[in-house]
Design goal:
Number of helices of chain A: 6
Largest sheet of chain A: 2 strands, antiparallel
Radius of gyration of chain A: 21 Å
Oligomer: homodimer
Chain lengths: 132, 132
DNA sequence: ATTGACCTTCCAGCAGATGGAAGGTCTATT
DNA sequence: AATAGACCTTCCATCTGCTGGAAGGTCAAT
Protein backbone atom coordinates (compact mmCIF):
# COMPACT_ATOMS: atom_id res chain seq x y z
CA UNK A 1 0.00 0.00 0.00
CA UNK A 2 1.55 3.33 -1.03
CA UNK A 3 1.96 6.22 1.36
CA UNK A 4 -0.88 8.22 -0.18
CA UNK A 5 -3.36 5.46 0.57
CA UNK A 6 -1.87 5.00 4.04
CA UNK A 7 -2.35 8.72 4.56
CA UNK A 8 -6.00 8.54 3.54
CA UNK A 9 -6.71 5.52 5.69
CA UNK A 10 -4.89 6.81 8.77
CA UNK A 11 -5.86 10.46 8.62
CA UNK A 12 -2.21 11.50 8.83
CA UNK A 13 -0.46 13.61 6.15
CA UNK A 14 2.21 11.75 4.17
CA UNK A 15 4.78 14.19 5.50
CA UNK A 16 3.91 13.22 9.04
CA UNK A 17 4.02 9.51 8.26
CA UNK A 18 7.53 9.89 6.84
CA UNK A 19 8.50 11.92 9.86
CA UNK A 20 7.23 9.16 12.16
CA UNK A 21 9.45 6.76 10.26
CA UNK A 22 12.44 9.12 10.65
CA UNK A 23 12.05 9.14 14.40
CA UNK A 24 11.63 5.38 14.51
CA UNK A 25 7.95 4.94 15.31
CA UNK A 26 7.25 2.82 12.25
CA UNK A 27 9.24 0.75 9.79
CA UNK A 28 7.23 -0.04 6.67
CA UNK A 29 8.43 -2.45 4.00
CA UNK A 30 9.78 -1.11 0.70
CA UNK A 31 8.88 -2.25 -2.76
CA UNK A 32 11.51 -2.78 -5.46
CA UNK A 33 11.14 0.76 -6.74
CA UNK A 34 11.93 2.17 -3.29
CA UNK A 35 8.36 3.16 -2.45
CA UNK A 36 7.16 2.61 1.11
CA UNK A 37 4.75 -0.31 1.33
CA UNK A 38 2.27 -0.25 4.21
CA UNK A 39 0.56 -3.36 5.55
CA UNK A 40 -2.86 -3.39 7.20
CA UNK A 41 -1.07 -3.72 10.57
CA UNK A 42 0.94 -0.57 9.70
CA UNK A 43 -2.32 1.27 9.06
CA UNK A 44 -3.58 0.20 12.48
CA UNK A 45 -0.41 1.58 14.03
CA UNK A 46 -0.79 4.84 12.13
CA UNK A 47 -4.40 5.24 13.20
CA UNK A 48 -3.36 4.46 16.72
CA UNK A 49 -0.69 7.17 16.51
CA UNK A 50 -3.10 9.64 14.93
CA UNK A 51 -5.58 9.15 17.73
CA UNK A 52 -3.16 9.30 20.62
CA UNK A 53 -1.29 12.34 19.23
CA UNK A 54 -4.51 14.24 18.65
CA UNK A 55 -5.49 13.55 22.24
CA UNK A 56 -2.49 15.37 23.63
CA UNK A 57 -0.02 12.55 24.18
CA UNK A 58 3.59 13.43 23.33
CA UNK A 59 5.42 11.46 20.67
CA UNK A 60 7.34 9.68 23.39
CA UNK A 61 4.15 8.76 25.22
CA UNK A 62 2.76 7.52 21.92
CA UNK A 63 5.86 5.42 21.51
CA UNK A 64 5.09 3.85 24.89
CA UNK A 65 1.42 3.34 24.07
CA UNK A 66 2.34 1.84 20.72
CA UNK A 67 4.79 -0.55 22.31
CA UNK A 68 2.08 -1.63 24.74
CA UNK A 69 -0.13 -2.19 21.74
CA UNK A 70 2.52 -4.27 20.02
CA UNK A 71 4.24 -5.92 22.96
CA UNK A 72 4.11 -9.69 22.83
CA UNK A 73 5.14 -9.95 26.45
CA UNK A 74 2.29 -7.99 27.96
CA UNK A 75 2.32 -10.26 31.03
CA UNK A 76 5.33 -8.66 32.66
CA UNK A 77 4.76 -6.51 35.72
CA UNK A 78 6.51 -3.38 34.49
CA UNK A 79 4.65 -3.36 31.19
CA UNK A 80 1.41 -3.71 33.13
CA UNK A 81 2.32 -0.86 35.45
CA UNK A 82 3.13 1.43 32.52
CA UNK A 83 -0.20 0.49 30.98
CA UNK A 84 -2.01 1.18 34.21
CA UNK A 85 -0.34 4.59 34.52
CA UNK A 86 -1.48 5.34 30.98
CA UNK A 87 -4.99 4.23 31.85
CA UNK A 88 -5.06 6.64 34.78
CA UNK A 89 -3.77 9.40 32.51
CA UNK A 90 -6.48 8.67 29.97
CA UNK A 91 -9.11 8.70 32.72
CA UNK A 92 -7.84 12.07 33.87
CA UNK A 93 -8.01 13.41 30.32
CA UNK A 94 -11.55 12.10 29.92
CA UNK A 95 -12.58 13.78 33.18
CA UNK A 96 -11.01 17.05 32.06
CA UNK A 97 -12.72 16.93 28.69
CA UNK A 98 -16.05 16.24 30.36
CA UNK A 99 -15.44 19.20 32.66
CA UNK A 100 -14.48 21.42 29.75
CA UNK A 101 -17.55 20.27 27.88
CA UNK A 102 -19.75 21.12 30.83
CA UNK A 103 -18.19 24.53 31.11
CA UNK A 104 -18.62 25.34 27.46
CA UNK A 105 -22.13 23.95 27.38
CA UNK A 106 -23.07 25.99 30.38
CA UNK A 107 -21.60 29.11 28.81
CA UNK A 108 -23.60 28.63 25.64
CA UNK A 109 -26.87 27.55 27.18
CA UNK A 110 -27.22 29.43 30.40
CA UNK A 111 -24.86 32.33 30.81
CA UNK A 112 -25.02 35.40 28.65
CA UNK A 113 -23.43 38.71 29.08
CA UNK A 114 -22.39 40.43 32.21
CA UNK A 115 -23.19 37.83 34.79
CA UNK A 116 -20.10 35.87 33.77
CA UNK A 117 -17.50 37.09 36.24
CA UNK A 118 -19.66 36.13 39.19
CA UNK A 119 -21.35 32.99 37.91
CA UNK A 120 -20.59 30.37 40.59
CA UNK A 121 -21.01 27.41 38.25
CA UNK A 122 -18.40 28.78 35.88
CA UNK A 123 -16.10 29.57 38.72
CA UNK A 124 -16.35 26.01 39.91
CA UNK A 125 -15.83 24.48 36.50
CA UNK A 126 -12.94 26.75 35.61
CA UNK A 127 -11.36 25.96 38.93
CA UNK A 128 -11.88 22.21 38.90
CA UNK A 129 -10.91 22.08 42.51
CA UNK A 130 -9.95 25.06 44.54
CA UNK A 131 -7.85 27.98 43.47
CA UNK A 132 -6.63 29.19 46.79
CA UNK B 1 0.30 37.32 42.78
CA UNK B 2 3.80 36.61 41.43
CA UNK B 3 4.42 34.33 38.49
CA UNK B 4 5.80 31.53 40.68
CA UNK B 5 2.54 31.29 42.59
CA UNK B 6 0.57 31.57 39.37
CA UNK B 7 2.65 28.69 38.02
CA UNK B 8 1.87 26.53 41.06
CA UNK B 9 -1.84 27.31 40.95
CA UNK B 10 -2.23 26.84 37.22
CA UNK B 11 0.04 23.86 36.71
CA UNK B 12 1.89 25.71 33.94
CA UNK B 13 5.66 26.42 34.09
CA UNK B 14 6.57 30.11 34.48
CA UNK B 15 8.32 29.94 31.12
CA UNK B 16 5.11 28.87 29.46
CA UNK B 17 3.09 31.55 31.22
CA UNK B 18 5.48 34.22 29.94
CA UNK B 19 5.30 32.68 26.49
CA UNK B 20 1.49 32.85 26.56
CA UNK B 21 1.82 36.52 27.37
CA UNK B 22 4.26 37.01 24.46
CA UNK B 23 1.76 35.57 22.02
CA UNK B 24 -1.04 37.65 23.49
CA UNK B 25 -3.16 35.08 25.32
CA UNK B 26 -2.92 36.87 28.63
CA UNK B 27 -2.12 40.34 29.86
CA UNK B 28 -1.38 40.39 33.59
CA UNK B 29 -0.93 43.60 35.56
CA UNK B 30 2.54 44.71 36.63
CA UNK B 31 3.60 45.89 40.04
CA UNK B 32 5.85 48.93 40.52
CA UNK B 33 8.98 46.81 40.45
CA UNK B 34 8.04 45.39 37.03
CA UNK B 35 6.95 42.00 38.31
CA UNK B 36 3.93 40.36 36.70
CA UNK B 37 0.91 40.47 39.01
CA UNK B 38 -1.73 37.79 38.46
CA UNK B 39 -5.32 38.16 39.62
CA UNK B 40 -7.58 35.25 40.55
CA UNK B 41 -9.31 35.69 37.18
CA UNK B 42 -5.89 35.36 35.49
CA UNK B 43 -5.35 32.09 37.33
CA UNK B 44 -8.68 30.82 36.02
CA UNK B 45 -7.61 31.72 32.51
CA UNK B 46 -4.27 29.96 32.98
CA UNK B 47 -5.94 26.79 34.29
CA UNK B 48 -8.35 26.98 31.42
CA UNK B 49 -5.41 27.21 29.01
CA UNK B 50 -3.53 24.42 30.76
CA UNK B 51 -6.51 22.11 30.45
CA UNK B 52 -7.37 22.86 26.87
CA UNK B 53 -3.76 22.68 25.68
CA UNK B 54 -3.17 19.37 27.42
CA UNK B 55 -6.26 18.01 25.69
CA UNK B 56 -4.83 18.55 22.26
CA UNK B 57 -6.29 21.91 21.28
CA UNK B 58 -3.91 24.18 19.38
CA UNK B 59 -2.96 27.54 20.82
CA UNK B 60 -5.27 29.20 18.33
CA UNK B 61 -8.16 26.96 19.31
CA UNK B 62 -7.41 27.76 22.93
CA UNK B 63 -7.53 31.42 22.04
CA UNK B 64 -11.02 30.83 20.63
CA UNK B 65 -12.14 28.81 23.65
CA UNK B 66 -10.73 31.44 25.97
CA UNK B 67 -12.55 34.21 24.15
CA UNK B 68 -15.78 32.23 24.45
CA UNK B 69 -15.06 31.93 28.13
CA UNK B 70 -14.49 35.65 28.41
CA UNK B 71 -16.89 36.98 25.82
CA UNK B 72 -19.51 39.30 27.24
CA UNK B 73 -21.59 39.04 24.11
CA UNK B 74 -22.14 35.32 24.11
CA UNK B 75 -25.62 35.78 22.65
CA UNK B 76 -24.49 36.44 19.11
CA UNK B 77 -25.12 33.71 16.56
CA UNK B 78 -21.56 33.35 15.30
CA UNK B 79 -20.11 33.04 18.78
CA UNK B 80 -22.68 30.35 19.49
CA UNK B 81 -21.82 28.48 16.32
CA UNK B 82 -18.12 28.51 17.18
CA UNK B 83 -18.98 27.22 20.62
CA UNK B 84 -21.14 24.48 19.18
CA UNK B 85 -18.38 23.42 16.81
CA UNK B 86 -16.02 23.23 19.77
CA UNK B 87 -18.57 21.16 21.67
CA UNK B 88 -18.73 18.68 18.82
CA UNK B 89 -14.94 18.54 18.74
CA UNK B 90 -14.81 17.90 22.47
CA UNK B 91 -17.40 15.15 22.11
CA UNK B 92 -15.30 13.55 19.40
CA UNK B 93 -12.21 13.73 21.60
CA UNK B 94 -14.10 12.16 24.50
CA UNK B 95 -15.28 9.34 22.26
CA UNK B 96 -11.73 8.75 21.02
CA UNK B 97 -10.32 8.71 24.53
CA UNK B 98 -12.99 6.26 25.63
CA UNK B 99 -12.10 4.06 22.66
CA UNK B 100 -8.40 4.30 23.41
CA UNK B 101 -9.11 3.48 27.02
CA UNK B 102 -11.09 0.42 26.07
CA UNK B 103 -8.32 -0.74 23.79
CA UNK B 104 -5.63 -0.33 26.40
CA UNK B 105 -7.78 -1.86 29.10
CA UNK B 106 -8.51 -4.82 26.93
CA UNK B 107 -4.84 -5.26 26.13
CA UNK B 108 -3.90 -5.27 29.79
CA UNK B 109 -6.75 -7.39 31.07
CA UNK B 110 -7.51 -9.93 28.43
CA UNK B 111 -4.84 -10.23 25.77
CA UNK B 112 -1.40 -11.56 26.44
CA UNK B 113 1.23 -12.63 24.05
CA UNK B 114 0.86 -14.06 20.63
CA UNK B 115 -2.86 -13.87 20.13
CA UNK B 116 -2.56 -10.12 19.57
CA UNK B 117 -2.35 -9.94 15.77
CA UNK B 118 -5.59 -11.86 15.42
CA UNK B 119 -7.63 -10.58 18.34
CA UNK B 120 -10.86 -9.31 16.76
CA UNK B 121 -11.67 -6.95 19.62
CA UNK B 122 -8.36 -5.19 19.25
CA UNK B 123 -8.75 -5.08 15.52
CA UNK B 124 -12.09 -3.41 15.97
CA UNK B 125 -10.86 -0.93 18.53
CA UNK B 126 -7.72 -0.08 16.63
CA UNK B 127 -9.80 0.38 13.53
CA UNK B 128 -12.56 2.45 15.10
CA UNK B 129 -14.53 2.09 11.94
CA UNK B 130 -13.34 0.20 8.96
CA UNK B 131 -9.88 0.10 7.49
CA UNK B 132 -10.96 -0.97 4.06
C1' DA C 1 7.32 9.50 -25.53
C1' DT C 2 5.00 12.80 -22.99
C1' DT C 3 1.76 14.23 -19.36
C1' DG C 4 0.27 14.08 -14.66
C1' DA C 5 -0.10 12.03 -10.47
C1' DC C 6 2.32 9.67 -7.73
C1' DC C 7 6.75 8.60 -5.09
C1' DT C 8 11.76 9.59 -3.23
C1' DT C 9 15.38 12.48 -0.30
C1' DC C 10 17.03 16.65 1.57
C1' DC C 11 16.89 20.97 3.62
C1' DA C 12 14.43 25.14 5.36
C1' DG C 13 11.02 27.11 8.34
C1' DC C 14 7.21 27.44 11.64
C1' DA C 15 4.70 26.43 16.21
C1' DG C 16 5.00 25.82 20.84
C1' DA C 17 7.54 25.70 24.16
C1' DT C 18 12.03 25.17 27.19
C1' DG C 19 16.80 26.28 28.99
C1' DG C 20 20.35 29.33 30.24
C1' DA C 21 22.79 33.64 30.76
C1' DA C 22 23.01 38.24 32.70
C1' DG C 23 21.13 41.08 35.71
C1' DG C 24 17.52 43.46 38.98
C1' DT C 25 14.48 42.82 43.52
C1' DC C 26 13.06 41.25 47.96
C1' DT C 27 13.51 39.25 52.50
C1' DA C 28 16.20 37.54 56.07
C1' DT C 29 20.12 37.10 58.61
C1' DT C 30 24.57 38.61 60.10
C1' DA D 1 24.60 48.30 55.88
C1' DA D 2 25.97 44.20 53.53
C1' DT D 3 25.64 39.78 51.99
C1' DA D 4 22.95 35.49 50.70
C1' DG D 5 19.33 33.12 48.53
C1' DA D 6 15.20 32.89 46.32
C1' DC D 7 12.69 35.19 43.64
C1' DC D 8 11.85 38.19 39.38
C1' DT D 9 13.13 40.47 34.60
C1' DT D 10 14.57 40.23 29.33
C1' DC D 11 16.86 38.15 25.57
C1' DC D 12 18.56 34.62 22.79
C1' DA D 13 19.49 29.72 21.71
C1' DT D 14 17.71 25.19 21.38
C1' DC D 15 14.33 21.42 21.12
C1' DT D 16 10.07 18.97 19.46
C1' DG D 17 6.88 18.01 16.10
C1' DC D 18 5.73 18.77 12.22
C1' DT D 19 5.12 21.23 7.31
C1' DG D 20 6.55 23.20 2.77
C1' DG D 21 9.23 23.26 -1.22
C1' DA D 22 12.86 21.96 -4.41
C1' DA D 23 14.89 18.48 -7.37
C1' DG D 24 14.35 14.36 -9.20
C1' DG D 25 12.69 9.21 -10.00
C1' DT D 26 8.33 6.01 -11.12
C1' DC D 27 4.10 4.66 -13.11
C1' DA D 28 -0.21 4.43 -15.81
C1' DA D 29 -2.72 6.46 -19.44
C1' DT D 30 -3.04 8.78 -23.53
Amino acid sequence: MNIGIASEKSGLPSKTIRYYEDIGLLRPARTDNGYRDYSVADIHRLRFLQRSRSLGFSVDECRQLLSLYQDKDRESADVKSIAEAKLREIDRKIAELVGLRGLLHHLVEHCHGDERPDCPIIDELAGEGMVQ
